[in-house]
């Protein structure tokens, strides 16, 4: 049986269009650096775990092999409302930047996501997911932190990334599967109010206030899922770097003439069912931010003679991060499941790199989640979740270079999100 007659080109085009629509409303920030902390409402209610715990049609975005465990065709539609609280303070600056700055000029943000799974045979399963990978937004509309340098208007950035991933998984032995996804990406970026830094750019005309530029990319994701016993499952995945076209309108800002690839990531997970009604799961994940020059290169590169936008030029100075997640789900009855979870991410922003990261303070570390699912007799499911990431502050240490007046920039971020997902057996 082939999947292609069941997914005609018109339907696929409509889903691809949904991905572009999702880009227009993608989240303003995320929790694992700028990556989302989970995909699918059930995973999000359990701290983001999903590498070894397939629960809905979006499971392939966490580990492509897990779609083999979805026994019947289903579709899931979800929406998340995301509310970040971000800002900065500057102190001891000799150029007049001192003050407290609120980056919350834009809030809240809405993120749709969609998943479809269809078994093609006893061994082969197809899936399609459209989901936000992450993003970052700041909007200092009540006071530009760089105004003393002559900056005009509201300072801020807006990065949005959406993945569209067709997936195939093959169950090569009972309970053991391999999966692969082709990852297509659409991303958008806009920067405003940072005009004074154009003097340090290789391409000043393409540095700031050029509206939203769109870039496209491609990569792949592979995974393994194995049911070791009836009560224990394990999983692992690797996602390649997503190689993207340049942001031409910001070729003078991002390293390598506007380069902004998505960093590679990989991880492993385990799920254990100690009783018939209780599931416990844990994931560990690594994200290699430092391998993307625009993200990982330090600002100090600028003072070695390499301008913004140059080959291997300055970036945001982000470190790689390791993320751990823990979650639990309990079936109160056949109709109701409740969930809770916790995630802990390294902070990617070093204390020495906070000056530029006033624009991108992706520094939250702790994430607390709850969720629940209600199932109708028809098989329709409604899932809700909520997440709170408490405020984390990063205090600068030698953060503002002497040519910009010295002193320290301190950044902070807190996050709240909640959402709903509706699932259907098809």
Automatic annotation (TrEMBL):
Alphabetically ordered keywords of this record: Cell outer membrane, Membrane, Signal, Transmembrane, Transmembrane beta strand
Positions of transmembrane segments: none
Location(s), subcellular: Cell outer membrane
InterPro entries referenced in this protein's UniProt entry, alphabetically: OMPP1/FadL/TodX (IPR005017)
Membrane topology term: Multi-pass membrane protein
One Pfam short name: Toluene_X
Signal peptide: 1-30
Family, similarity comment: Belongs to the OmpP1/FadL family.
Protein name per Swiss-Prot or TrEMBL: Outer membrane protein transport protein
Organism annotation: Aurantiacibacter gilvus
